Amino acid sequence: MASGAELTPTSYMAHHLTNLTGSVGEGAFWTVHIDTLVMSLLIGIVSFGFLWWVVRGATSGVPGKRQAFVELAIEFIDGQVKSTFHGDRHAFVAPAALTVFVWVFMMNAVDFLPIDIMAAVYELLGLHNWRSVPTADVNTTFALALSVWLLMIFFNVKVKGLGGWIHELVCTPFGKNPLLWPVNILFNLVEYVSKPLSHSLRLYGNIYAGEIIFLLLGMWAATGLAGTVFGTLLGAGWAIFHILIVTLQAFIFMMLTVVYLSMAHESH
What we know:
The chain is mainly alpha-helical.
């Protein structure tokens, strides 16, 4: 969310649309996005460190502002899980939902940091290519979605047994007739492939698009007086709207996680 800045448009793009990478093997597949990993780790440590600090000092008496805020967030997530998952939600699903929501929300919220100030900080640190927003990198969102997908398969096998899960893949949704087995398998294969793709690309697309709009407004603000005025006004409006996007996308990602894990515990 930058207003007039000294950085050139090329500098904006370099800092916020280009990853700092490292190679761990031969070929492009073995390229690691160092900035994405570092930012994700730091945000996770700060976010859950804060929650741990508040919970560690929790009291059964009148809660303070921090404790009340955390309790409100936990109760909200627990209520959403309760309405979707019908089982022992506190064993895994509710804590996982809270973890997903907080982590994704905080990674999305990095997009609120002023672009020009962050670029200047990275310049001082000698980081010429550094992406601040982990969820604007499709590798992050796909890794999160793939983790949920693997958990979904794990709980399918754990709850239904390997034989029960295979039976479900072969015999649903169209029936047990052997002639329908190929259709059932194909149908379920499409469903299993589409889940991590839609789960990841929905979050990535929204956050990446929001980042691009912030960059365009910031670059417009650097073109002159008219650009500064309109870029600032539109930037403020978009920032307010983007708050909703950041929160909504974290909520949607969390709810899809709960839905997928809930489906894994249910039999057709």
